[in-house]
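hey m, so remember when u said the tokens were messed up on ur end? i reran from scratch. heres the input so u can diff it against urs
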Amino acid sequence: MSIFDEAYSGVPNWEIGRPQREFVTLEETGEIRGDVLDVGCGTGENALFLAERGHKVWGVDSVPRAIELAREKARERDLPVTFLVQDALDMENLSRTFDTIIDSGLFHALSDPDRLRFVRSLAAVLWPGGTSLMLALSELEPGENGPRRVTQQEIRAAFEDGWRINWIRAAVFEGRWQPAGYRAWLSSITRV
């Protein structure tokens, strides 16, 4: 059982019962366009919000319990989101491409070798010219509990080949256990 499977035996810190404010703002400002893939979608709050806003959305997560809960929410809200149990490091088999990919807290949970596999996997499902929008815990967040922190340089290095960094800016990753949220980096990265 992975730490993520174990986390869903309860309610994980990252499950806040609504979409992350950073993704709400990105949608409202037109940064999220076209068909969207929410990678590491958890119970689907970001994906469901984007579907409410008129996007065709798929959500993938490796934790069956998270996908089961996401599907229940989609049925209850009568929203046509496709939720799949899927390894984010091997998405080629989706046989589908998207205009926008969102990542709310997955990248910072990956090891260095897995980050490179993840970036290759994203390239397989994102149209050239499409954008990946990523929210990851920043090294500026104090303490050592929780996932490892990410530097801007680590983001730039992972997306060095075949990508263009549009911007990386300071952001807040909201969590249930810390009302003010956690210091994070929000990145916009285009596949070239």
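this time it looks ok to me. The longest helix spans residues 64-77. if urs says something different then somethings off w ur setup not the seq
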